[in-house]
Design brief:
InterPro entries: Split_barrel_FMN-bd, TR_PAI2-type. By secondary structure, the protein is α+β, with helices and mostly antiparallel strands. Helix content is about 30%, strand content about 30%. The chain contains 6 helices and 9 strands. It has a 5-stranded antiparallel sheet. A 4-stranded antiparallel sheet has the order 3-4-8-7. α5 runs antiparallel to α6 (about 200-210). The longest helix is centred in the middle third of the chain and has 16 residues, at about 120-135. It is elongated, with a radius of gyration of 20 Å.
């Protein structure tokens, strides 16, 4: 990511918040055949399954699954992978700036996470798949669970490979017009919160968090 020290996001708690709110992630691997990229729903593992205790505040662990044979294309477990978490982002028009400031930009919240994937056993993979389904279904009026037909669900699960990534380092940015004076930031937030062509309530909310 571009070296922009004044937009650095260094707090692991903020990176975890980004992951929780934006579970659709991009995986990039430097495979022997060249770069390979895929996209999968991903959860932050809040509890260490080996101890049953919560993860440390500074510990970031991701769990997900790949559809076969994607794990072979990525050569999972053989090298470090890059996982990209992308939060709210959008175009910032100079129409919202002070007069004479005419250069637009793009605000965003993004994290690059690095680690070597650990391949999960079939049973642990199924447990993670259950967590994924339950996580997203809990908002539905009548949630669906894999235990409706566990035998069939386990047959389908054989077409997937579960993985855990203990993040060893991350590079994150929250570029949210911090370089603009307060009155300009307020104008940008108001425009993003409105009904114009580039309105984006989620991005406006991220900017408000910095106030």
């Amino acid at each position: 990511m571009r070296n922009t020290p004044h937009y650095l996001l260094t707090d692991p708690a903020e990176v975890k918040r980004l992951i929780r709110r934006n579970p659709w992630m991009t995986y990039v691997s430097p495979a022997s055949t060249g770069l390979v990229a895929s996209h999968y729903a991903t959860l932050l593992e809040e509890t260490d399954p080996s101890t049953g205790s919560g993860r440390r505040d500074d510990e970031i662990v991701l769990v997900s699954h790949f559809g076969r044979p994607d794990e072979l294309a990525h050569e999972l477990g053989q090298h470090e992978v890059l996982v990209i978490a992308q939060g709210p982002h959008g175009y910032i028009s100079p129409n919202w700036y002070a007069e004479g400031d005419f250069v637009p930009t793009w605000n965003h919240v993004t994290a690059h996470l690095y680690g070597v994937p650990e391949i999960l056993s079939d049973d642990e993979n199924f447990r993670i798949l259950e967590q994924l389904v339950d996580h997203f279904e809990k908002r539905m009026p009548t949630p669906v669970s894999l235990d409706i037909d566990e035998e069939k669900a386990r047959r389908i699960a054989r077409g997937t490979v579960g993985l855990r990534i203990r993040v060893t380092r991350f590079d994150a940015r929250a570029k949210l017009s911090q370089n603009k004076p307060p009155e300009v930031r307020e104008a940008i937030i108001a425009a993003l919160s409105g009904d114009g062509p580039y309105s984006d309530a989620a991005l406006a909310a991220e900017m408000r968090r910095l106030e």
